Amino acid sequence: MATTTEVTMTKNNSKPSTQPEVQGGPVWDWAAGHGPVTGALSATTGMFAVATTGAATAMPPGWALAVGAAGAIGHTAAGIRLRNAGRTIAARAASWLVGAGWTTWAMTHGPLTWTALGSLAAIGVGMGTATRSTNLYEEAREEEAIAAEQRAVAAELSAERRTIAAEWVDRIQRVCGITVRVLAVEQWPTGTGFTLDAELPGGTTYDQIAARAAALSADAHLPHGCTAVAGPGVHQGRTLIDVSTVNALETETPYPTDYAPLSLLTGIPWGYRSNAEQILTYLREQCALVVGPTGSGKTNMVHVILAGFARATDVLTFVIDLNAGSAGLSWVLPALQHQPAPGERPLRPGIDWLAGTVEEAHTMLDAVLRIGHQRKISYQALMAREDTDLLPIGPSIPQIMLVIDEGAEILTSMDKAMKKLAAKILEVIRMLRAMGVRTVLTALGSTGSVLGNLMIRREAKVRVALTGGEKEGMDLSKLFPGTRGLKVDQAPYKGAGFMGTPESAAALFKCWRILPSQIREIVAATSERHPVLDAVSATAAGDAYARRWDADRIAWMHQPQPAAPVSELDEGGEGRRGLNLSALRDEREDGPEPEQGPVSEVDRLADAFMREIDEHFGTAPEPTRRPERERPERPGLNLSALRDNDGDDSPAPQGGAGPEWLADAIAAIADAGSAGMKPSAVADHVGRSRQAVREALKAAAERGELVYRDNGPHSVYVHPDHA
Ligand SMILES: Nc1ncnc2c1ncn2[C@@H]1O[C@H](COP(=O)(O)OP(=O)(O)OP(=O)(O)O)[C@@H](O)[C@H]1O
User: Fold this and answer.
1) Which keywords does UniProt give here (predicted)?
2) Among 110, 319, 470, 486, fewest CB within 10 Å belongs to which?
């Protein structure tokens, strides 16, 4: 009767055999399952064998009946445990009983008669048919059970969605006085919130809801850092309301380690929204402005921006960082210090040009302007052929992204030298959009004077405000005009803030954290990927560009970075930091060779680096003559790197208002926010006599550059932005 067991277990017994192969005979697989036909065949042959053997050996017929009854009971119990359908259990029990009945009858009347054989055949066919039918029925039942389970989950989900929809319809009605109809609720895959797709009542616009974002968030008891932001829907009568329920901005997320190639045309990621969606910037025609007070994560963000440009195959990045070049250095030094193994190509820096001084910045901006003008002339035919008024940017004609750290401060500086620089930056912004030169400016504060500039307002629509918990001087309404409901305290985390682009409305965002080790990895990973400046541009840029990695131009990069204290600088003159490169050059060329063993080693390395770069990558045409020595410029005033670079208390030789250190003093006072600074603290900061500082600050207040807050011995000077 063992074979009948196999018939009834067909469905659950279909696993492939794991029995080891037996050598020397037919393989008898006891674990193999049966289909309805083989099962019935196996059962009937088994019954026939038992009946003939039993008849021949005079076995008591009751035994077969007893075994059949036991099988029927066992299978009924097993069927119940497996939750088989009643009809399946009945069919299997009946198979056992009919089989046992026939065997008993055949043992009594003889199995070798036509009647016995005929009835056995009929039983076999019946068993096969019944098994097939119960199997089909069980499969159908199983499928139906799965479908029912899915329907239950869906019903539960849609019940949850319906609850959310009803709750938000009520809330919007209560807080905004607008009755919307929610058409869909989509849960974010990250599990950190949901989006409502709502239909607005006639004559209502989504910004009426957007303006009440903070009130909606409070009404919904959302955790800190979570928002309910209404944005445009598929048409003007619909709105999408993003509701974040988990604060994704709180956690520090490392820069994604997939350093895959990017293109300026398909967007460069700068960070992510509360729903973990990446924010792409499209900078073919747009400039960008990143505002972040000290400690907000601005330097980190500049590195993330440079990482994106380094990964792009159609971008060359020029960096101006008068703060001792600190933002750009991390992208140059890994290449400069790289010791290629034999046969290995030297690394190219992650940026294509770094200006750490005012002179170098002028050289760079002049070259960029020449490039732009020459591109306009030389690429006329190409643009006509391509039927476009925008230069077709790509790996063969790369876009130049000019990243200027604290660039907004240069633009608003009152200093004469800075004004000259500012004029060139503005010319680049105004003239070279079509020719593939765009800028990213950073600013310490969103001062009215930065955004008061029409050019910046018009050209820099990609805007970022890193708040990092800082409230002073953070005027989001100036940076994101027309967007209401943004509050600085929604993003009190470093690297978090608000970001808006023409494609993505201003809302909360977070920048990835990028570590120096990742910068080194990206420099290595992208070294072979950077485009080469097109010949037209390289010729226009001339020696200034071709010799940008010359030893004398990059010698400062090897100087110890922390600025020397004022006293040292004043005493020796030797201690002047790497900012004034021309000073280094002059000493070597005009006077006796100074005792600078390490510098000559540096020169040697730098020369080798320059040779290798040109040899392997041909980044620039070989210059035919030494560049004219440039007239040293007075260093600028309003940047921290230049703070200690002054000479004395006398007025600036250019006739600028106040002594040279005044801009530094004003910057420090601005940094102090609404608390302001006492003249004595300013004197300590700039290392000047109190008397001289008092007079200069007073004069600045009279010119309107500072505000004097009279409070007896606690009187302070406050920057107009914070007054
Ligand atoms: N995206 C980020 N995620 C998490 N933490 C960050 C992020 N960005 C910056 N931080 C933290 O904030 C600190 C300051 O960052 P960063 O130096 O970039 O700020 P900053 O605004 O440039 O300040 P400073 O002007 O003083 O250099 C970092 O050391 C890091 O601990």
Assistant:
1) ATP-binding, Nucleotide-binding
2) 110
User: Can you say whether the dihedral through the CA atoms of 165, 171, 174, 178 is positive or negative?
Assistant: negative
Q: Could you tell me the pTM of the whole model?
A: 0.58
The H or E element spanning position 441 is strand 437-443
d(CA 709, CA 723): 9
- The Cα 217–Cα 219 span in angstroms is 5
Q: What is the DSSP letter of 12?
A: G
Express the helix, strand and coil content of the chain in percent, nearest 5 each.
50, 10, 40
Please give the Cα distance from 622 to 283 (Å, whole number).
31
Q: How far is CA 562 from CA 75, 239, 575, in A?
A: 85, 52, 11
pLDDT for the residue 439: 95
Q: What is the CATH number of domain 268-616?
A: 3.40.50.300
The CATH topology of domain 646-722 is Arc Repressor Mutant, subunit A (1.10.10)
DSSP-H helix ranges across 437-502: 448-451, 454-459, 476-479
Sheet holding 238-244, edge to edge: 181-187, 193-199, 238-244, 228-232
In testing the pocket of ligand 1, which one of 270, 299, 470, 508 has its CB within 8 Å of the most ligand atoms?
299
**CA 487 to centroid of ligand 1, rounded, Å:** 20
- Strand pairing partners for 239? 198, 232
Short-list 47, 41, 7, 16, CA closest to 135: 7
Pairing of strands 707-709, 716-718: antiparallel
pLDDT of 240-270, one tens digit each? 999 989 888 888 999 999 899 999 999 999 9
Query: What residues are designated binding site for ATP?
Result: 292-299
Backbone angles phi, psi at 251, to 5 degrees: -85, 150
| DSSP secondary structure letter of residue 490 | G
Say if the ipTM goes beyond 0.95: yes
Q: pLDDT tens-digit profile of 220-237?
A: 999 877 889 898 899 999
113 C-alpha vs ligand 1 centroid, how far in Å?
97
Task: Say what the pLDDT of residue 607 is.
Answer: 52
User: Three-state SS string across 169-201, please?
Assistant: HHHHHHHHCCCCEEEEEEECCCCCEEEEEEECC
So where are the chain's domains? 2-14+30-146, 178-244, 268-616, 646-722
Amino acid found at 145: A
Annotated binding site: 292-299
Q: Which residues line ligand 1 (CB under 6 A)?
A: 252, 292, 294-300, 494-495, 511-513
Tell me: pLDDT of 87 over 70: yes
Atom in ligand 1 nearest the alpha carbon of residue 293: 21
Question: Please, which pLDDT band fits residue 355 given cuts at 50, 70 and 90?
Answer: very high
